Amino acid sequence: MTEDNKQDAPAVPEAAIKPQKPKPRLKTDDELEKVADRARQQRRKFVSRSMTGFFVLVLLAFMRFFFPRTLFEPKTKFKIGPPGDYDFGVDTRWQSKHRIWVIRNAEGLAVLLAKCTHLGCTPDWKEQENKFKCPCHGSGYTPEGVNFEGPAPRPLDRCHVELDPEGQIVVNSIQLYRWEHRYDPGAILKV
Ligand code: FES
Q1: What integer pLDDT is reported at residue 74 of this predicted model?
Q2: What are the structural domain ranges in the chain?
Q3: Is 152 in the pocket of ligand 1 (CB under 6 A)?
Q4: Atom 4 (ligand 1) nearest CA
Q5: Which of 117, 139, 157 has most ligand 1 atoms within 8 Å of its beta carbon, as the pocket-test mutant?
Q6: Which residues are 102's β-sheet partners?
Q7: Which residue(s) pair with 172 in the sheet?
Q8: Is the pLDDT of residue 99 over 80?
Q9: Which residues pair with 90 in a beta bridge?
Q10: What would the CATH number be for the domain defined by 77-181?
Q11: In 3-state terms, what secondary structure has residue 114?
């Protein structure tokens, strides 16, 4: 190329020239030591937090022994007021609290346990249909608790009932009478 040609070559614009990245400076011993210190502190923090978490878990597990898994069952012996509180028919007011129904007819007053004799579900009282109906497998019971449809093998059980000195009905829901014992003393109140 001749001297003339060199002068004719177009000049490269300054903006097109990329700035060179400065080369990373090598760290001094002091700086390296600081980085290592920071890493050590973070490691120590992590270990101490893990240990604290672990001890808290152990402590909680230990404390758990002082709070046994007790199931607070409803009372099985309770009062439900005087017989005068109950009209003829089926009374469901205690179903959710004590799982019983009070039935009253010409024979007297009895308390049925609201527990299906098939597999133990709680039947519903169907006022319109004048029957108890189990929602689980469809067993049906008369207002006296006699099974007449579905897989229930026998009538509903009756709870022990007696009057206390104040004339209150006392129910014992774990002392039960089967249908064939429905006239036993304790299975019915002649009121
Ligand atoms: S539990 Fe009531 S019918 Fe099965």
Answers
A1: 75
A2: 25-64, 77-181
A3: yes
A4: 137
A5: 139
A6: 91, 111
A7: 77, 160
A8: yes
A9: 103
A10: 2.102.10.10
A11: coil
